[in-house]
């Protein structure tokens, strides 16, 4: 795959596993459980290939104990297999943009050996602190080059892919604005789990910093009012409407 167009990067949506958790983990005040996707995006830019998050690790394939009771990871869902299905060599990925380092967002990092990981510096430090059990060091402490950033970062230097801080879920969470030929996409990650999270300004039941999380939702709300299409981090209903493994036309995204 090689983007030779001049209208901006191309985006492809990929599902890299599922996890079932109490719904209140994603939006407060809700009962029951919800099965949600691990959402990954391939960004094909003329200057290189980037992934926004990498889903679950392939170590969950076939696992039926421990986390395997709540994580579903078919073999074809690993990021390496998802890329190969698009005729993309995992060795050719240049950049991994980790929204944060939880195991459903950084699990596939090790399958992309030549990629440089881009992460907010505060997130990198927090991942090693041991304060949050959703981090697994084996997922992100892989020996790959790591570019630690602080604040906004223009990935390709042309304004088409801008990383920006959206803390609250974790201290160093970040999202991405991607300007394509068909509009602007905001890859939210876990700063906004469901469409309802943004519509109703509702936080998850447990957050690292509620004030920061609320501020991140407000930032996304302003972007949505300005016309950006928000890709909510774990919304199963929204995700069903997003074409998988195909070039996304943002004009068709609801």
From TrEMBL:
Residues 37-234 form the Metallo-beta-lactamase domain. The lineage of its organism: Bacteria, Pseudomonadati, Pseudomonadota, Alphaproteobacteria, Sphingomonadales. It comes from Parasphingorhabdus halotolerans. Keywords: Hydrolase, Metal-binding, Zinc. GO terms for molecular function: hydrolase activity; metal ion binding. It comes from the Bacteria. This is N-acyl homoserine lactonase family protein. Belongs to the metallo-beta-lactamase superfamily. CDD domains: AHL_lactonase_MBL-fold. PANTHER family: 102 KBASES UNSTABLE REGION: FROM 1 TO 119443, QUORUM-QUENCHING LACTONASE YTNP-RELATED-RELATED. Its cofactor is Zn(2+). It holds the Pfam family Lactamase_B. The keyword Zinc applies.
């Amino acid at each position: 795959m090689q983007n030779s167009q001049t209208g901006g990067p191309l985006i492809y949506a990929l599902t890299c596993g599922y996890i079932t958790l109490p719904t209140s983990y994603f939006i407060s005040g809700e009962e029951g459980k919800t099965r949600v996707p691990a959402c990954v995006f391939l960004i094909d830019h003329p200057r290189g290939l980037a992934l926004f998050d990498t889903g679950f690790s392939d170590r969950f394939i076939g696992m039926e104990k421990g986390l395997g009771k709540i994580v579903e990871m078919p073999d074809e869902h690993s990021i390496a297999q998802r890329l190969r299905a698009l005729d993309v060599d995992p060795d050719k990925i240049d950049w991994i943009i980790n929204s944060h380092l939880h195991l459903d967002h950084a699990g596939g990092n090790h399958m992309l050996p030549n990629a440089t990981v881009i992460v907010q510096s505060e997130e990198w430090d927090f991942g090693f602190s041991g304060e949050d059990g959703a981090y697994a060091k084996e997922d992100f402490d892989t020996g790959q080059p790591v570019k630690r950033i602080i604040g906004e970062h223009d990935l390709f230097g042309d304004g088409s892919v801008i990383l920006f801080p959206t803390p609250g879920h974790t201290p160093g969470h970040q999202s991405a604005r991607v300007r394509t030929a068909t509009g602007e996409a905001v890859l939210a990650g876990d700063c906004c789990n469901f469409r309802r999270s943004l519509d109703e300004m509702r936080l998850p039941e447990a957050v690292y910093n509620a004030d920061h999380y609320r501020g991140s939702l407000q930032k996304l709300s302003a972007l949505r009012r300005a016309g950006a299409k928000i890709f909510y981090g774990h919304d199963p209903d929204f995700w069903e409407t997003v074409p998988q493994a195909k070039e996304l036309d943002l004009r068709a995204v609801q």
